[in-house]
Amino acid sequence: MSENRPDVDDADRLARVILSRTIEPGDLRVTGLVNELGASKVLGYLEAAADVESHWGFALAHELGRVDPAQVLEQAAASGIRFIVPGDAEWPTQLGALRNAGALHDRGGEPVGLWLRGAHDLRQLAGNAVAVVGSRAATSYGTEQATELSRDLANMGHTLISGAAFGVDQAAHRGALLAGGPTIAVMPCGVDRPYPTAHAQMLDAIAERGLVVSEAPPGAVPTRARFLARNRITAGLAEGTVVVEGAVRSGALNTAHWTTNLHRPLMGVPGPVSSAASTGVNQLIRLGHASAVTTAQDVVTDVMTHQARAASGDVDQVNESFVPGPVRSTGPAFSGAAGPLTTPRR
């Protein structure tokens, strides 16, 4: 595990702890401002909003003062949890691409920090990672495909990323663990909360073999907004994303949207035309938004081809028709979201 770099400002780190404990993951009003101004200045900006009821940060301002960041870090460390921020040696630099990846469902931007459980180095694990996601209500076909694909990718030296949910996520983690490979679980809640509770033992195994990661602080419960926010982290950490089963309105397609917004390869395992569980994946493939893959070698080939094209500057832009207009913001993730960047008058 890498140590935190001494050149990361302590005040900035503590400010990020406070923000992480206060804001919702992926809050567009904050993530972009932190990227532009730094966490300490944003914290001061929000604190100054405590006397301005009409300001968007009024409610947040009254929560900020209740957080003792040093105590939060101490309590987390006692539970085997650490907090990393941009600039740390362990921070995956590819997450910086989220700054310019737009927004979905009002979530977006590079996270202010990440909470980790497990001894492995996130940057190293994510340096050769593929996300495998899909339906919670997976069929036997879907779980079999996800398990075999993930096992084979792990045997080929890739880290598997998924969300520890029932169905395809569980199968993906299981495949990597069966191969003895590392896997990363990106959670919609605190890394100290087994979710779903039935997967507590699996999450312990993931923490031993890889990492349990969350943008939400320890103790946070899963919510719909946090599920949506975590999907961008899953896509942001991975070199590419494979969808194994997903209906037209599957949550896995949200991760697919983020993958496309990030200009990274999106792949899908074709499903039976008679299976409702595969309608979303089959449609992605039919419309050309995802390539069809049936083996781990297909996935590796797509990822390597994309990397070669990216190195030469020949990468397709986002297909705008893929992301419905109402859930996507244009321009920087924070554009217009936070209002004027002036300090509120007291």
Helix and strand layout, with pairings?
Layout: H1 10-22, H2 28-37, H3 39-47, H4 58-64, H5 69-78, E1 81-84, E2 103-104, E3 107-108, E4 114-117, H6 122-126, E5 129-134, H7 140-155, E6 159-162, H8 168-178, E7 183-187, H9 200-209, E8 211-214, H10 224-237, E9 241-244, H11 252-261, E10 266-269, H12 279-286, E11 291-292, H13 296-311, E12 328-329
Helix pairs in contact: 1-5, 2-3, 7-8, 7-13, 8-9, 10-11
Q: For the largest beta sheet, what order do the strands appear in spatially?
A: 1-4-8-7-6-5-9-10-11
How many helical elements?
A: 13
Helix content: 40-55%
Beta-strand level of the residues, as a percent range?
5-15%
Secondary-structure arrangement, i.e. CATH architecture of the largest domain: 3-Layer(aba) Sandwich
Return Rg in Å: 20 Å
The number of strands is 12
**CATH topology heading of the largest domain:** Rossmann fold
